Amino acid sequence: MDTFRAFRVFDDGGRVQGRVVSMTLDDLSAGDVVIRAAYSSVNYKDALAATGAGKIIRRFPLVAGVDVAGTVAATADRRFREGDGVLVTGFDLGVAHDGGYAGLVRVPADWAVPVPDDLSLFDVMAIGTAGFTAALAVVGLERNGLTPSAGPVVVTGATGGVGTLAIQMLAGLGYAVTAFTGKDGEHDFLRSIGAKEILSRNGLQMGTRPLEKATWAGAVDAVGGETLAWLTRTMNYNGAIASTGLTGGTELHTTVMPFILRGVKLLGIDSVMCPQATRRQVWQRLASDLRPAGLRQIAREIALEDLPDAFATLLGGGARGRFVVKLSRVTAATLETIPATLKGSRYTSYTSTRRSRARRSRR
């Protein structure tokens, strides 16, 4: 059988590391839809997973990559047709199910989302999990009453994937956005993507009182830790914080005072297990009013071989925007093997298999 290239992660005697290998379709996790992958992306979660810096991957060896976009090469599910543009983010992709860093990706049909007409395959991976998370954060803030007239909105981790995309989305909707960053050399860049004000983390006195000066109507926080605690103390009355990340730590040291005296809302944003209906709605908005204006400005295209350097950049706090992974084209000979393989009982109807197992477990 003809092969394709993939970035696969191994546990070599307790040392987690990834490398580019050749694989066949038979090597991949089961699923109803085979995707001829065009692009993937690099998220902080990918860096944690592929290097072992975080206990993300649940089985080894595994193809990494929590995102993928491409076209349907074959399907056992009637909701899709060969040639359809699809994207997958989250669920178990790149965690317990072979992920997006491969020429072919096989997934359960329930995970796949049609690519909106106004977005290219490159666009959806320049957005990827980071942008989808940012969009969920914006939607969550809107549902809690945030409007541009309410006051300034702050975005932390401003030069990262979630941050750069959240700034563009909020600015495009008319919000006055303050970018919060520790990278003093990136102020001009942040203004160029829509930030009205820049707040440097360096030298900032965050204070220790339960309530500090009320400043923000809303916040998108990709940092967590001390930064998130400071946000709770500096929100306006009825302000809301969308918590999306943990690059600054997982612990939150605050009091109940902001919540009971100022009515502050802390919104947890989870993009991994987001319901399919919500996914489709948010991706449609990402193709319209939430579409980031400067995707090409913040996206850097890399190859599979460049992934280790990208992981190191993210883990070292040096990221600026997004890494988009261009995947190798799959040969015609490899594509010809797919339909016959999908018809095999081992691969057909992943969802049906899960349902039958569930029925057996209930008996």
Topology:
Elements (H helix, E strand, L loop, with lengths): L3 E9 L2 E9 L9 E10 L1 H8 L10 E2 L3 E9 L9 E5 L14 E4 L5 E2 L6 H23 L9 E4 L4 H12 L4 E5 L5 H6 L4 E4 L15 E6 L3 H10 E9 L13 H5 L3 E4 L7 H11 L8 H4 E4 L4 H9 L6 E5 L5 H5 L1 H5 L7 H13 L1
Helix pairs in contact: 1-9, 2-3, 2-7
Describe the protein:
It contains twelve helices and 16 strands. With 363 residues, it is an alpha/beta fold. The chain folds into two domains: 4-115 and 294-362, Quinone Oxidoreductase, Chain A, domain 1; 130-268, NAD(P)-binding Rossmann-like Domain (Rossmann fold, 3-Layer(aba) Sandwich), CATH 3.40.50. The strands form three sheets. Strands 3, 5, 6, 7, 8, 15 and 16 form a seven-stranded mixed β-sheet that branches. Strand 9, helix 3 (161-172) and strand 10 form a beta-alpha-beta unit. The longest helix is centred in the middle third of the chain and has 23 residues, at 121-143.
